[in-house]
Design brief:
The complex is a heterotrimer. Chain A has a single domain, classed as ABC transporter involved in vitamin B12 uptake, BtuC. By secondary structure, chain A is mainly alpha-helical. Chain A has twelve helices and two strands; from the N terminus they run ααααββαααααααα. Chain A starts with a helix and ends with a helix. In chain B, 73% of the residues lie in helices and 0% in strands. By secondary structure, chain C is an alpha/beta fold. Chain C has a single domain, classed as Rossmann fold, CATH 3.40.50.300. Chain C is built from eleven helices and ten strands. In chain C, helix 3 crosses helix 4 and helix 3 runs parallel beside helix 6. Chain C is globular. The model of chain C has no long low-confidence stretch (mean pLDDT 90). Classes of the chains: A mainly alpha, B mainly alpha, C alpha/beta. Chains in contact: A-B, B-C. The interface between B and C is large, with 38 and 50 residues.
Chain lengths: 288, 339, 254
């Protein structure tokens, strides 16, 4: 029970790190980016390649995954994405589905369709007992919780305490007004997009062990990311974070207790949550 | 617009009419004449031609919803799949009569549309978009897990379809399958053309262009969109039923997200909101698939993706948009100082 | 009590968060009257219009149309009861020709937009009525058939009015009909406003004091969500509180 809960929390935090960049894309630019998972996949494969083929230390692999995904995000944002700002959702949907297909096909061609596996460093392996044998939990899960927790905290502080953060929040609240105030919304967005892609890349690398990694990654987890953002809203860290935790726990619990129903649980959860709580981000973009 | 006639007379006549005229009529004639021609010219490719007709019907359903009513969906495969499983299951359980099977499949899909429309059309278009995605995936998973009924990942086996109208049995060469699919496509196309040229169709175009104004005109916008959603669902259901009946097999693919995305691709490839756009796009798509997937399947997926990216960035006129633009340029050059 | 007011509000209130955008507004428009609603920016005019049309719901108070309470009715049903509006910012159909747009409005008025079994062009009477209506607003045949997006801005403002008129409203809300129209095109818009049939009760929401004083028989001044003053143009122009709100702007025109 506790094990399931902790596993759920760990994968929820991982989902948050993967998805939080998307909340900015959706919230700030009202852009439906179904290709967000592709950046996660990119990070995952960078990590796998460096670790398995070149023996780079795990932590360095994580950093490389984040950096390369951020770079990829920055390049694509400047070259392709910016053409579709302000266009209607159909164009954005088509564009980003197209990117997903291209990314999946390219990875499939380069790396094959199989699940990628990594060997974690010894210090992250094994399980430890907690609460007098009440439950055991994997060391890696604890590592995930600690690392992702630190990222959440850093993002929160960055958003609340820094000038960049306050400008970003202003821009998400009302891009038109923010522009009028002389806030360089486009540049803020470009930077945030790169950071969000980088975090997705980090999440993808961290997730190889937990979520798996194969060419269908972006499509498989697209729904998860959308739920996190749609349910959580865009202007805070807390909303998507809670949504991600909830999702992680529900998902793990569903797979653990109701394996025969499988992913059905999560899709149902998505639809129900969307219907129960279309506020925040979604209600706002509807009102416009 | 075509040039002929005085404009005073042309003005009322223009209402509700798609841009036609002599060239348009000739192009329409050519398009439909191509089907029997293909039937005679490529007797070995009849199953492929059936695929084209079925894909065209699916794209037509998307055009009604996306191109006319302006509701973007990522889950149209749900209706296609439900139609396919309805027709397939009917046949497996002893009712192989194709026409009634087709109607029942369309009715089932329409019912699904009626039930889910309030969920999809409830919030903003972003929420609606995600709900269509979620519903599509739910149905896929449901069919996947309900293996005792649907056959799950192995597909639904043992679909036996009786002769069409008791006269034409489905043959090995796919002759009946092709003619049956084509007949259904033609009938439903004519119906769709009537619908989009009707006051209801004009109201849908109005809603797509400016829902706010439509509210202010007194239109019950939600009710019109529900009707469009249900109609599009029925069309997709009919397309799915055709696939099940002509291939005598239903696989999980019918419900896959890929199918919803490919439908949108066909539509934007041909051109949105023109009815013929979806048909042309479907033909181009299926033929391209046939040619390209002889190489590796990943290649094919890569090029679909590239096509989507390019079409999204380039705008949505599609093939028909290019044709129209070319004709306008030609007319402008020829017209010179006239008109 | 003689005939009920064509349009009436009683204590209409709407808050956004803690801010009362419209606060206890009571208005009554006599049938066939020409009434103007003025007020500085942020006075709550837009919110009031949205409450009247039913685009948003009030927190308190009621809206009555010809004596009947329509507070609970959604927008489209109020239109069916005879309440039409134009928009301050054009809400048109860029791809449709004016003749198509007006035909659409007429089809809606006649309750035909649920019909799918006959082409629009088979409803000949609609197209003829649409052409006649547009001709009355001095649309040339060529303009009627060209896409709306190609029309001059002044013509688009006229089309705004045409779409509302097509509904044969008994009460018409005109939201800054001449806003943004260049002077050389504005005469036609003003003429169209002046030529509105007398049977139609008109509420004009306007910034342009010239137009207000030329057109209105009664004026309601809104400030900070409340009715600041109401009366004949002369009385309102003399009202010192109104002069204060407008910082002499109204006084200059009176």
């Amino acid at each position: 029970m506790l094990t399931v809960l902790l596993d759920g929390v760990a994968s929820g935090m991982l989902l948050f790190v993967l998805a939080c960049g998307l909340s900015v894309t959706l919230g700030l630019m009202n852009f439906v980016n179904l290709a967000h998972g592709a950046f996660g996949m990119a990070g995952g494969y960078v990590c796998v390649l460096l670790l398995n083929r070149h023996g780079v230390p795990f932590l360095a692999c994580l950093a490389a995954a984040a950096l390369s995904a951020a770079l990829l995000g920055a390049v694509l944002e400047r070259t392709l994405y910016r053409w579709l700002y302000g266009r209607d959702h159909l164009d954005q949907v088509l564009f980003s589905i197209g990117l997903v297909f291209m990314a999946s096909a390219a990875v499939d061609w380069l790396m094959g369709a199989r699940q990628q596996l990594i060997a974690l460093p010894p210090w992250l392996q094994g399980r430890i007992a907690i609460g007098d044998g009440l439950a055991t939990v994997g060391v890696y899960r604890l590592f995930l919780i600690a690392l992702c927790g630190a990222i959440v905290l850093a993002l929160h502080l960055g958003l609340v305490r820094t000038r960049f953060g306050s400008r970003l929040r202003a821009a998400v609240d009302d891009a038109v007004v923010a522009r009028g105030l002389g806030i360089p919304v486009d540049r803020i967005f470009a930077v945030t997009f790169a950071v969000g892609s980088g975090l997705a890349g980090l999440g993808g690398a961290l997730g190889v062990e937990v979520l798996g990694l194969d060419p269908t990654f972006p499509l498989k987890y697209m729904v998860y990311f959308l739920i996190v953002v749609a349910v959580g809203g865009a202007n805070t860290i807390l909303g998507p974070f809670l949504a991600a935790l909830l999702l992680g726990v529900v998902d793990v619990a569903g797979k653990y207790y109701l394996p025969e129903v499988g992913a059905f649980v999560i899709y149902t959860a998505m639809v129900v949550l969307l219907l129960l709580r279309p506020q925040g981000l979604l209600a706002r973009s509807a009102a416009r | 617009m075509s040039g002929g006639g005085t404009l005073a007379a042309a003005a009322p006549a223009r209402v509700g009419r798609a841009s036609r005229g002599r060239w348009g009529l000739a192009a329409e004639g050519l398009f439909w004449a191509a089907w029997p021609a293909a039937y005679l010219a490529f007797p070995d490719y009849l199953p492929l031609l059936s695929q084209v007709a079925i894909a065209a019907l699916f794209a037509l359903s998307l055009d009604l919803l996306v191109g006319y009513a302006g509701v973007v969906t990522l889950g149209q495969a749900a209706f296609f799949g439900l139609g396919a499983y309805t027709a397939g299951l009917l046949a497996v359980h002893g009712w192989g009569e194709p026409l009634s099977g087709l109607l029942l499949a369309a009715a089932a899909a329409a019912l699904l549309g009626l039930v889910t429309a309030p969920l999809v059309l409830r919030g903003g278009d972003l929420a609606g978009l995600m709900v269509t995605l979620g519903l599509g995936l739910m149905l896929y998973e449901a069919a996947n897990k309900a293996a005792p009924v649907t056959g799950g990942a192995d597909g639904l086996q043992g679909v036996e379809i009786w002769p069409v109208l008791g006269l034409w049995r489905f043959d090995l060469f796919g002759r009946t399958a092709f003619l049956y699919s084509l007949a259904v496509l033609v009938l439903l196309f004519l119906l769709a053309r009537l619908v989009v040229s009707s006051p209801f169709g004009l109201a849908l175009r109005g809603i797509r262009a400016n829902a706010r104004r439509m509210h202010a005109l007194g239109t019950p916008v939600r009710a019109r969109l529900v009707a469009a959603y249900v109609l599009a669902g029925a069309y997709a259901g009919a397309a799915g039923a055709l696939l099940a009946q002509t291939t005598q097999f239903v696989s999980l693919d019918v419900l896959a997200f890929q199918r919803s995305a490919e439908g949108l691709l066909m539509l934007v490839l041909g051109g949105l909101g023109r009815l013929y756009g979806g048909l042309l796009g479907a033909a181009a798509f299926v033929v391209a698939h046939q040619v390209l997937s002889e190489m590796t399947p990943q290649f094919w997926q890569f090029w679909i993706g590239a096509a989507l990216v390019v079409l999204a960035i380039a705008g949505r006129g599609g093939l028909l948009g290019l044709l129209a633009a070319g004709r306008a340029r030609l007319l402008a050059r020829r017209g010179g100082g006239g008109a | 009590m003689t005939a009920p007011a064509a349009l009436e509000t009683r204590g209409l209130t709407r808050r956004f968060g803690g801010f009362a955008a419209v606060d206890g507004v009571s208005l009554a428009l006599a049938p066939g009257s020409r009434h103007a609603l003025i007020g500085p920016n942020g006075a709550g005019k837009t919110t009031l219009v949205n409450l009247l049309t039913g685009a948003i719901r009030p927190g308190a108070g009621a809206v009555l149309l010809e004596g009947r309470d329509v507070t609970a009715l959604p927008q489209h049903l109020r239109v069916k009861r005879g309440l039409a509006r134009t928009f301050q910012i054009n809400q048109l159909f860029p791809d449709l020709a004016p003749i198509e747009a007006v035909t659409l409005a007429l089809a809606e008025r006649e309750g035909l937009t649920a019909r799918w079994w006959r082409p629009v062009r088979a409803h000949r009477a609609l197209a003829e009525e649409a052409a006649a209506l547009l001709a009355r607003l001095r649309f040339a045949p060529a303009e009627m058939a060209a896409p709306t997006r190609d029309l001059a801005y002044g013509r688009q403002r006229l089309l705004e009015i045409a779409l509302a008129l097509a509904l044969k409203p008994r009460v018409l809300l005109l939201d800054e009909p001449a806003a943004g129209v260049p002077p050389e095109e504005s005469r036609e818009v003003l003429e169209a406003v002046a030529a509105l049939p007398r049977a139609v009760t008109v509420l004009l929401i306007e910034h342009d004091m010239d137009l207000v004083f030329r057109f209105a028989e009664r004026i309601t001044v809104l400030a900070q969500g409340r009715v600041l003053a109401e009366g004949t143009p002369e009385a309102v122009a003399r009202d010192p509180r109104v002069r204060e709100v407008y910082l002499g702007e109204a006084a200059a025109h009176a």
